[in-house]
Predict the structure of Glutamate--cysteine ligase.
Amino acid sequence: MAGADIFSPPIETRADLIDAMARGAKPRADWRIGTEHEKHVFHTDPLRPVAYAGSQGIKALLEGIEKETGWVPFYDGDNIIGLRNHEIAGGISLEPGGQFELSGALQENLHGTAEEMAEHMRVARKVAAPLDIHFLGLGVTPFWSVAEIPAMPKSRYGIMKPYMEKVGTLGTSMMFRSCTIQTNLDFASEADMVKKLRVSVALQPIATALFANSPFVDGKESGYLSYRSHIWLNTDDQRTGMLPFAFDEGFGFEQYADYALDVPMYFVIRDGQYVNVAGESFREFLAGRLPQLPGEKPTVKDWEDHLSTIFPEVRLKQFLEMRGADMGDEKSVTALSAFWVGLLYDDIALEAAWELVKDWSLDDHDMFRREVPRQGLMTPYDRTNVYDIAAQAVGIAEAGLVRRGVLNAKGQDETVHLASLEETISQAKSPAKRWLDLYHTKWGGDLAPIFEAAEL
């Protein structure tokens, strides 16, 4: 049952807070690749969002995939809200507006990531077709407002939505009409985590530019190449952003824990129910002074839940989560993981990436984060632009993948999964730019064709 309590020891010392992240460290031989992606869902007859209930709803889609795969359903109350594959620890879950998310199983290499994506889409399409449910690979749904998108019956979102409306201007757009790709990667030690985190934070806006794929919103041009990334700039700045303290001397797990302690809470799970503690302090919870649970102190699971409600551009848990990319087509899902694996899982590439970014100031980081959603690869920087930086980063990643030397059955190494990025570099155009070209030429200002063109 979703939300059911899991036995967890109480937090006894500050070390317990740090250990919740530090115990993720593992030797290189055990490093894996986790890829997550969200897809918009829509009906075509007529063109409209998909509701949860009904014979053609999200619930029916989940139940159909359960029958097709044998994956185990989980619930919020009486409502099925996802599926777990216990054999390989993958799963399907729902975002607030019905965005259909695959949390992929841990893969040894990128060939496995691509195969997983292909199989997931094969099953999803097979089950969805009779329901007139289709999947859209864009960073933001191009037509519907938040009010027009049916909400999924998940308790945590009932807590998050009203809080989002208080702390940011576009938080509900993030919840209901955005989709991302996320890559999760391992670290060997605290020092390895620090270097990877710094490189990936600095380069996250570069990934945003490469994968920019949300130039439309509310049926028209948004004014941004990645409107999804712009949304995040206006979503609760206490739990988002570029982690400037990560570049301080002495940064490590303890400093990240201090940061997380000061991020306001959303909820605590007790007796299988979500307790609304939105805006409260985890520090006060540690002291037993949480107003909703007076005298009660948190468990390690409470802390891990809290860490999962923080949304910086790179998130630290027992691994590092890359969070800067718009959702795209199938190849782009694996390409994001290929980009980051090439940069972070090869020592020479990691050092080269650090050389690329080490002299950037915090003001530079902030400028990239704020300007890239609008200007993308053409964002100017120091007599050059983000395109030139992106081309260097893709080259470093490609060399890193070559050195990994992991071949598929056809004898191809992992660089084959960078093809979509190489297309972006060769054209100097992100997917968003290519959609805009079609919109202004072939489509004649009509946005409806994008639902067929960007269908997964």
User: Anything to note?
Assistant: The mean pLDDT is 97.
